[in-house]
Amino acid sequence: ARITLRQLLDHAAEHGYGVPAFNINNMEQGLAIMEAAKACDAPVIIQASRGARSYANDIMLARMIDALAEIYPQIPVCMHQDHGNDEATCLTAIRHGFTSVMMDGSLEADAKTPASYEYNVAITERVARMAHWVGASVEGELGVLGSLESGHGEAEDGHGAEGALSHDQLLTDPDQAVDFVMRTKVDALAIACGTSHGAYKFTRQPDGDILAMHVIEEIHNKLPNTHLVMHGSSSVPQELQDVINKFGGRMPQTYGVPVEEIERGIRHGVRKVNIDTDCRMAMAGQFRRIATENPGEFDPRKFLKPAMDAMRDLCRDRLERFGAAGNA
Ligand code: G3H
Ligand code: 13P
Ligand code: ZN
Fold first, then answer.
1. What is the pLDDT along the chain (328 residues), one digit of tens a residue?
2. What separation in Å is there between the alpha carbon of 183 and the centre of ligand 2?
3. How far apart are CA 165 and CA 156, in angstroms?
4. What ligand 2 atom has the least distance to the C-alpha of 277?
5. Ligand 2 centre from 234 Cα, in Å?
6. Which residues are annotated as a binding site for dihydroxyacetone phosphate?
7. Which residue from 220, 211, 325, 232 is spatially nearest to 267, judged by alpha carbons?
8. Would you say the CB of residue 52 lies under 6 angstroms from ligand 1?
9. 242 CA to centre of ligand 3 in angstroms
10. Is there a smaller number of Cβ atoms within 10 Å at the N or the C end of the chain?
């Protein structure tokens, strides 16, 4: 059954668990997520980025979500717009059956330039007002995602905000968070604590200097009733790097967010945990393995089935470790 982010995260808060939000671009990822949820009786958040929507087509995505909800009627599923950049993106998502949207006003509509605080408040408040009219939930973001390791991260790899970001912009200010939630009335708040999108988050095992989990505790102390969201939460497991590299990949050594740190976040108000990169790596490792071990293979299903199984196992592990299992 389809539910909103608000319904799902209220339940998660009441019972002290976190819900992974996995990104989807195609049928195989959708099936992997739902199989994992079914296997451990967990609710899930499926999210589509703007890139996913243009890759798969809105109508295809909408029908796919209908199909997944019909195939797995016992699983509560929230369909969420990841990183909406303006009102149009958020409203068209709702029109296509999404029950929740992220209005990421931490960046301007180009999704690159850090935005002013007043811009963020105004656009997020507008989207929240409109979404709430029609029963959809809204996630806002305060603080810009990016690595606290100097000379490393989003600004450099071009994935996120351009230019050098100050330490302050990279960490959400707890007092500003209180003002932001009050003025925008968001259902969930994404915060910045030193994580970044993609595989190259940290050049070493992160400690408190570069992964600022204490910021989450400070925000939670001031906003105990606000559902917090952690972006850039892939753990980039060594095993997945090893599979990719064993079968011809060339991923330089990198470090993600340890699952224990996410578990610590969940003890302090984190309810939604965004994971895309780990799923991509799980799938890509299997593509490489099949291509290497069976170079004569050309049936896409022979690549996609092991990839789906690997993603399913990854998703199930996170559903269990975040405590979502058993809560469907
Ligand atoms: O925001 C980052 C997510 O991993 C989605 O990535 O924009 O390449 O679909 P994407
Ligand atoms: P990862 O790149 O760490 O998987 O983060 C995904 C994300 O935050 C999507 O919004
Ligand atoms: Zn994100």
1. 999 999 999 999 999 999 999 999 999 999 999 999 999 999 999 999 999 999 999 999 999 999 999 999 999 999 999 999 999 999 999 999 999 999 999 999 999 999 999 999 999 999 999 999 999 999 999 999 998 886 554 444 445 454 578 888 899 999 999 999 999 999 999 999 999 999 999 999 999 999 999 999 999 999 999 999 999 999 999 999 999 999 999 999 999 999 999 999 999 999 999 999 999 999 999 999 999 999 999 999 999 999 999 999 999 999 999 999 999 9
2. 26
3. 10
4. 4
5. 6
6. 198, 232-234, 274-277
7. 220
8. yes
9. 25
10. N
Q: Measuring CA to CA, which residue among 275, 283, 284, 235 is closest to residue 31? A: 283
Per-residue 3-state assignment (H helix, E strand, C coil) for 263-296:
HHHHCCCEEEEEECHHHHHHHHHHHHHHHHHCCC
**Structural domains of the chain in order of their starting residue, each with its CATH number:** 5-321 (3.20.20.70)
Indicate whether residue 104 lines ligand 1 (CB < 6 A): no
| Catalytically annotated residues | 82
Q: Is the CB of 326 under 6 A from ligand 1?
A: no
Distance 111 CA to ligand 3 centre (A): 11
> Residues annotated as binding site for Zn(2+)?
83, 104, 141, 197, 231
Closest ligand 2 atom number to CA of residue 230: 8
Q: What does DSSP assign to residue 26?
A: S
Alpha helices in 185-299 (DSSP H): 213-222, 238-246, 259-266, 277-293
First-to-last C-alpha distance (Å) of the chain: 10
pTM (2 d.p.):
0.96
Backbone φ and ψ of 207, nearest 5°? -120, -170
Per the document, the length of the chain is 328
